[in-house]
Structures are given as C-alpha cells and as structure tokens.
Specification:
Length: 446
C-alpha cells in the first residue's frame, strides 16, 4: 500500500543522501575545479537539465544545490502529458509513474464543493490521449537524482557570484559561500524565481530580468487520509479566492488556496501559521468554504507539508535572455527563465521541457564534442540563443494566458463572478482545454 511505498521511498532517499554526502565531501576537497557545465539549483529543473546533459555526452557536470542533503522542500507538482514526454525522453518516466495514480477527470465547483459547475473526462479534450498525475516533489527529485552519475550533486552550496572571462573563448567563473571557485564552459541557472544566475546575467548584459509579482499568493499542502475524499482534479471557485485538490497517492491529497495579497507582506511564515492563514482566507471569503473538501484537507495537513509563495511571472523572455546576441555562455531553465502563475499547471511541465530542449540544441550543434576554446564558446552561445528563441516562442503565450486566466478566475466583482459561473455551467467546452499540454519536446540526441 501507500505506507509501504513511502517506506521504500524513504529508504531509497537515505541511500541517496549517504552517497550525496560522500560526494559533497569529495567535491569540497577541491576548491578550484573545472567542469564542462555547472547547473545551479538542485530542484526538478536543475536535476533534469543535468541528466539531459549527461545523457547527451557531457560527463563533467556539477549541480550546486544550496539546501543541505535530504532537506526536501515543496509539496507536489501536477504533471501533464508534455511533462511525461520529457520524463520519458530522459529515461525516468516509468520510475516517476510508479505508485502515482493517473487522474482522468476534472470538476469545477463553487466553494461549498457541492455545486458542480462542470465536470468532464480528459478523453473529451482534443489531442489525446492525455496523462495527468500529481507527483510529490521529493519523489520526482529522488527519481531524477538516482539516474545521475555519482557525485554529480554538491549540496549545502550557495553561489555568491557568477562572472564571464574571455581568453581563448568564454569561461564562466562561479564563486560559492565556502570560498570555492569553480569554472565551466557553460552555466545553467535553474535556481528558481529569485535566481542568482538570472540576476548575474542581467548585471553582465544590462538587461532587465525583474519579476512581475501579480498581487496573489498561493498556499499549498499535502493532506493524509485513510480514504481519499476525491479521485479527480477538483477546482473550487469562490469570490476573490480559489482553491483545488487532486490525489498524489492512495492516501495523500494535494491542495492549494490562492488569494489576493499585498506583495510587500512578509513571507517568512511557516507551518501552523501558514495553515491558519489558509483557514482565515477561506473563512473570511465565505462561511460555505468550511464545508468544502479543501477546508477538510487543511485540517489533515502536517505542518511540515505546507508552503506559501507569492506568485509572479515574466513576459519578455527573449528580450531579457537573448544569449545569442550577448555571447554569454549562460542559460536559464524553469522558473529562473520563465516564472509563471500556476493557473495552467505548466510551471513544472515546461521546466522539464527546458532540460530536453537545451540539451538537444547543444547536441545538434556538437558543442560537447568541441575542445575548449573559441569554437566551443561560439557553439555554446549560438546553441543557447536557439534554445532561448524556441522556449520564448513556446512559453511566452503560456505565461500570458496563465496570468489572464488567474485574474478572471479569482475575480471578486459580483457581476463578473456571476458571468464566470454562468459561462462555466452553460457554455464551457473542454475540447481545447489541454491544447497547451500536447507539446512534444522530442527525443534526446547523442
């Protein structure tokens, strides 16, 4: 059952932590090391990128992760068809799928969860077959880590600076908080929405890489049950507040609450404080939330399985990160490149696409086969430029659409709330609901 699965996952994680700790000690012993590529950030985007590089011939790849070994973090990710295509291309899809239920139905309800506005199977969406599974972040990270070469990840390492030097080609120098100086022909920033690498890139190129905070906050958690109260993706709409749930195992339910929030408000809350805020937001909006599946899930969530984050995005991806013009051998992936609001459920999915497409662009140009020097630097920069162009074309419409959808769904203006609910109940057609999730990142080359 789910309990045995969790025990096996924890045993596997303990083994990986031991191996990673040994690798961390080895890495720290050499404070001036050189690599083909350095990936900053050990979350799903960074690990997937490192794995894609290794699978396409980049053997000297180092991942720098600021958290300690086994620290964990986050709750769960909803992975749609395009994400599973990327995971399959990386060779880890089946491992990630193991013991993760496939979900095939969507419900959209009002806040009491009893009034269903619409309900449909994913088979009614064009472009199928479609695949959706909610995956615990720690499980995804564990699966990706287990496929990397030994000693790839260096934990408890924070990057303090990133600079480009030019001598017989461009080299990126990365300095860390333990006084190490690492160099690489390529650096990939996969360090999240507050990316230090994106900031360094902006400083070096004079480009605006700022984040647009949308004035909304999301609280996310994972609740535990003996019997799950919901076996579908359930989106729950209120007035000025929205929420949702979906299963991530036989006995665990992911939930979220999204609400308008002052962007200057402190985000240092933790554990029980976050759970209390989620209850307060729902109760203040409407008493009917107290009978919803979301309210019940909050009460069943341990304090160490909840998170809170302000939502932001970036629309001018190509203008900000056109590395081909800047000739800077720095690429970005995931939220570091294209932060987006979670309204389409595509943040994690497109991050996994990034990994495959970046490696494929580098592979197509033969960058890893060229000796260090001007030819390799030029090849890497041109590959990053092509990657950035492809990702801007693919992701920018998603970022904009997700932003606008969030504003429409979360409105608190009564006439618009009425129009929204009436449209969903009477006119919504799911045919094109998943058009954005049919994207295929392709296979990895060699």
């Amino acid at each position: 059952g789910a309990q045995n699965t969790r025990l096996l996952q924890r045993k596997k994680q303990c083994q990986l932590r031991t191996e990673a700790r040994d690798g961390h000690r080895t890495a720290c012993a050499s404070q001036n090391a050189s690599y083909d590529a350095i990936v900053v950030g050990g979350g799903p985007a960074g690990l997937a990128t490192a794995l894609a590089l290794q699978k396409t011939g980049w053997e000297r790849v180092k991942v720098l992760e600021r958290q300690e070994v086994g620290a964990g973090g986050g709750t769960a990710l909803g992975l749609w068809t395009n994400a599973w295509k990327a995971l399959d291309a990386l060779g880890v899809g089946d491992d990630v799928r193991r013991n993760v239920p496939r979900v095939g139905k969507v419900q959209v309800c009002r806040e009491d969860s009893d009034r269903v506005l619409t309900s449909f199977d994913l088979s009614r969406c064009d472009g199928g077959p479609h695949e959706f599974r909610g995956v615990l972040r720690d499980h995804l990270v564990s699966c990706l880590t287990s496929h990397l070469l030994p000693n790839t990840i260096q934990y408890d390492t924070r990057v303090t600076s990133c600079n480009v030097t030019s001598h017989q080609g461009s080299t990126v120098t990365v300095e860390t908080d333990d006084a190490s100086t690492l160099t690489a022909d390529l650096v990939i920033g996969a360090d999240g929405i507050k990316s230090a690498i994106a900031s360094s890139y902006g400083r070096m190129t004079g480009r605006d890489v700022s984040i647009n905070y949308v004035g909304q906050t999301a609280i996310r958690g994972v609740a535990t049950y003996d019997t799950l109260p919901c076996d579908c993706i359930r989106q729950v709409l209120g007035s000025g507040v929205r929420a949702g749930v979906y299963p991530v195992s036989e006995k665990e339910l992911y939930w979220y609450v999204c609400f308008d929030d002052n962007e200057n408000k402190s985000s240092s809350m933790q554990g029980e404080e976050i759970l209390q805020e989620a209850r307060m937001v729902l109760e203040t909006s409407s008493q009917t939330w107290m009978s919803s599946v979301v309210w019940n899930a909050i009460s069943r969530t341990p304090t160490d399985r909840v998170s809170r984050s302000r939502l932001g995005d970036r629309w001018d991806i190509f203008d900000a990160f056109s590395s081909n013009a800047a000739r800077v051998p720095i690429a970005l992936a995931g939220d570091a490149l294209h932060p987006m609001t979670p309204n389409l459920g595509q943040g994690g999915c497109t991050a996994l696409e990034d990994a495959v497409i970046l490696a494929s662009c580098l592979c197509a140009a033969g960058a890893h086969q060229k000796p260090s020097g001007r030819d390799r630097s030029r090849c890497i920069s041109e590959s990053i430029g092509e990657y950035t162009r492809q990702r801007a074309t693919r992701v920018t419409p998603l970022v904009i659409r997700s932003n606008l959808m969030g504003r429409a769904l979360q409105t608190g203006f009564p006439p618009i709330v009425f129009a929204r609910d009436t449209f969903i109940s009477n006119a919504f057609n799911p045919s094109h609901f998943l058009d954005h999730a049919t994207f295929d990142c392709g296979e990895l080359g060699r």
